[in-house]
Design a protein that fits this description.
The complex is a heterodimer. By secondary structure, chain A is an all-alpha fold. Chain A has helices at residues 3-11, 14-54, 58-73, 76-86, 96-122, 125-133, 138-153, 155-166, 180-191, 195-221. Chain A has one domain (16-221): MetI-like fold. Helices cover 80% and strands 0% of the residues of chain A. The longest helix of chain A is centred in the first third of the chain and has 41 residues, at 14-54. Chain B is built from 10 helices and no strands. By secondary structure, chain B is mostly helical. In chain B, α2 crosses α5. Chain B has helices at residues 3-10, 13-51, 57-72, 75-85, 95-121, 124-132, 137-152, 154-167, 179-190, 194-223. The chains are: A mainly alpha, B mainly alpha. Chains A and B meet through α1, α3, α4, α5 and α9 of A and α1, α3, α4, α8 and α9 of B. Chain B: The chain crosses the membrane at residues 31-51, 63-86, 93-112, 189-211. Chain B: It is a multi-pass membrane protein. Chain B: It comes from Dankookia rubra. Chain B: Keywords: Amino-acid transport, Cell membrane, Membrane, Transmembrane, Transmembrane helix, Transport.
Amino acid sequence: MSNWDRFLNSFFNARVAWDYLPKIADGFVLTVVLALCVIATGLAAGLALAVVRALGVRPLNWLIIFVVDLFRALPPLVIIALLYFGLPAAGLSLSGFAATWLSLSCVLMAFSEEIFWAGITATPKGQWEAARSTGLGFLATLGWVVLPQAVRMVIPPLTNRTIAITKGTALGSVVAVSEILGAAQAGVSFSFNPTPLTLGAAAYVVLFVPVVILGRWIETRFAWKR
Amino acid sequence: MTLDDFLLAFFSLEILEQAWPILWQGFKMTLLLSAIVVPLGLAGGIILALLSTVRHPLVRWPLMAWVDLFRALPPLVLLIFVYAGLPFAGFEVSAIGAVAIGFFLNTGAYYGEILRAGIESVPRGQQEAARSTGLTRWQTMAYIVLPQAVRNVLPDLISNTLEVVKLTSIASVVALPELLFQARQAQSVTYNATPIMAAAVIYFILLWPVVRLLSRLENRQLAGGR
């Protein structure tokens, strides 16, 4: 058998691919579910923190800044390890899915809070003053006048950050979540053939290349006007 | 569970004392790893950014596909693919070799995008003026365009470098004895979460100043410039 045949037989083995396709497909669905959960909770929490920060209560803001800094400085995998391997020592067990979801949500919360906050502070003061002078309350001003402009402004960095953090779902494989990478690795050790990894990589490409291209498009479409 | 139990599980001084020597080794390994992969990624990024100045479609399209591909694949997937997959193709790679290859491909693509944006932000007149003084194309790039490009995207470069240093924690998955790996080892021997907690604290102490600096740079960018 030539080297080339051996290569094809290893990485593009049709029989192995056929056997493990269903497992990878399940992993694909789980990855998508996990990613959507992370995006929903992470962005909601980030926006909530930014709104609380806009209230301008000093001690509260210091706390928010500290939490945001904390989750920007810690590697996501360290947070996952702490929740998954550490919490049982305190008598509390989280599933791998819950640990990954919670960890990535915290990370996305931190990054998105920074970005939302940047948008809020970048909205001209006159917008606040004009809205308040028409009789709108603080929250009404924030919700109806400031946030719509702020969010529009920060869509490009927000999209990029969300994509980057969502790719962290692959870290779930470390704590026994059988998302794409986990399913692929299991496939490799059962079949002793790397084809499931090729399939896994292809699944990520199918999932994320459109997202990356969408991110590129959004970046030009919503680019800050100078 | 009482507070004492909690402290014992997460902040036990006794355990910390036992685990400290290997945590310290892990910390040094993390620094070494960062010192290898950051320059490697930067080198890859500069190559990609320079290639992006070539307008020929035979360069442009493959380059874009390359960058999008490696931005779409989660770094852990790339690492596992290199580490677990290459041996099947007849190449034995060590853990550190796999990390170097994976990071070169992944972080190179990110640095490349940032530097490309930087190069595009330098007005064309700069190049024309430099060329008209008799500088060659490469001299113009090296002495005139790149320094300004780097300055324009410095916050993004620092931010990406922070992400790369955090990302070295995934090397624990291929049994490279960096900080997280050592902490996991110590945790599984002692069945106590203190080592992982200690690793998190070390990461935070190491990276918090960078996060603060970034926060400040980003705010300044918002306040001025735009």
